[in-house]
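Long-time lurker, first post. I've been practising inverse folding by hand and with some scripts of my own, and I keep getting stuck on stretches where the structure tokens seem ambiguous. Below is the full token string for one chain I'm working on. Before anyone asks, I'm not after the true native sequence, just a reasonable design that respects the backbone. If someone could post their per-position residues I'd love to compare against what I wrote down in my notebook.
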């Protein structure tokens, strides 16, 4: 990544990383999208019956 800097210990081993804010925000967004995809896949794998959104909304309003 462009602009990435590392913090090293006394032996020169990388122990931390500094990332520009824009790069960090892109990483966070990508991680959130990946989490959403994994959650979607997990729900689909359950193979549970589904209903249309409008039916769900109508059902919720009637409670």
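-- Answer (accepted) --
I ran through it position by position. Result:
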């Amino acid at each position: 990544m462009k602009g990435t800097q590392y913090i090293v210990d006394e032996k020169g081993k990388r122990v931390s990383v500094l990332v520009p804010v824009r790069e960090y925000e892109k990483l966070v967004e990508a991680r959130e999208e990946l989490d959403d995809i994994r959650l979607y896949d997990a729900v689909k794998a359950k193979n549970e019956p589904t209903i249309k959104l409008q039916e769900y909304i109508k059902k919720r309003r009637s409670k």
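A couple of notes from the structure itself: Helices lie at 21-45, 53-61. The longest strand covers residues 14-18. Happy to go over any region you disagree with.
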